[in-house]
Design goal:
309 residues; Rossmann fold; five-stranded parallel β-sheet; 12 helices; elongated
Length: 309
């Protein structure tokens, strides 16, 4: 883990065996980065949250004093300011989407999880929660949401398109429409894959595979000399097309996952350009030194010719 701070996790689980397993997974994969408190009842969990600060809640859906989806609804209503992950014995995509739609950060099926998946889910859930209105950081959240909206508007604004053309810049969707469509289709596939990982507790290798695919996409964007404007345009187009054909709850998940994806893609693109710029600088230095050596050799040959003459 990059963050060396110990994260406080409240585990709400009435099964001693399941609770022991969760603690062992966090202990083996978290390397001392987690402090876990466990309670068995929903009301006890709400009281504990009122007295102590926690970074995240792992919440079993079926407790002695609260059963089923209502447990998640009450948790999101009574403790909106803390990220929560639902724990279930039922592998149900519809239920998972509903849970995420009401404010849960993730939905984990107990029989399909291991330590690496659990740790990564916790870390991602905490980061996603920081971007959500429920985090309580209203001004920062509003600012980020406004920035996202402005970026989308900037990408599709006719005024900006005209201004860009005056300076000799034509958007990719107009200059190379087929390439643009291909990139959008590729991004849509990644969005679908990200959504499946979010709702099916994908194995750790699939998370790594997603990062590899985003990095490969960034290299292609970099090769085409595309920048943030084009990335936002591709992102917004893909997101718009995907959310038009799904339910509102699923659309919300697409938007959330898309926000994380585009930030990761931007990071890879920046790294690509840094690497490219460094390589170009090194090549420039090499060419300069080579030219300087050639001039010195020619000068030396000239002097030798003069002496020989």
């Amino acid at each position: 883990m990059k963050d060396e701070r110990v994260l406080k996790v409240l585990l709400v689980e009435d099964s001693d065996g399941d609770a022991r397993l969760v603690k062992e997974m966090l202990k083996s994969e978290g390397a001392g980065s987690f402090h876990v408190d466990r309670v068995k009842r929903f009301e006890e969990a709400m009281k504990r949250l009122g007295r102590s600060d926690y970074d995240l809640v792992l919440l079993d859906m079926y407790l002695p004093d609260s059963q089923g989806f209502g447990t998640l609804v009450k948790a999101c209503s009574q403790a909106p300011g803390i990220p929560k992950i639902a724990l279930s014995v039922v592998d149900d995509e519809t239920l998972a989407l509903k849970a995420i739609g009401i404010g849960m950060q993730d939905f984990i099926v107990k029989t399909c999880v291991d330590g690496k998946i659990l740790v990564r889910s916790i870390l991602h859930s905490i980061e996603r929660h920081k971007l959500s209105p429920a985090s309580g950081k209203n001004e920062k959240t509003v600012g980020k949401e406004l920035s996202s909206c402005l970026l989308d508007r900037f990408a599709f604004s006719p005024k900006n398109a005209i201004t860009a053309q005056l300076f000799g810049f034509v958007p990719l969707c107009r200059s190379q429409p087929e390439t643009f469509k291909e990139l959008v289709a590729c991004y849509e596939e990644l969005l679908d894959e990200a959504l499946k990982q979010q709702t099916h507790n994908a194995v750790c290798d699939m998370f790594d595979n997603m990062s590899d695919k985003l990095q490969a996409l960034s290299e292609r964007l970099g090769f085409l000399r595309l920048g943030p404007r084009e990335v936002i345009e591709i992102h917004a187009t893909a997101l718009r097309q995907q959310t038009q054909k799904v339910s509102q709850s699923k659309a919300m998940v697409y938007v959330e996952e898309g926000r994380n994806m585009v930030l990761e893609l931007m990071g890879y693109l920046v790294s690509y350009y840094r690497k490219y710029s460094y390589a170009a600088l090194r090549q420039s230095e090499f060419n300069y030194c080579r030219k300087d050596r050639i001039l010195k050799i020619k000068d030396k040959i000239g002097r030798l010719d003069e002496e020989g003459g």
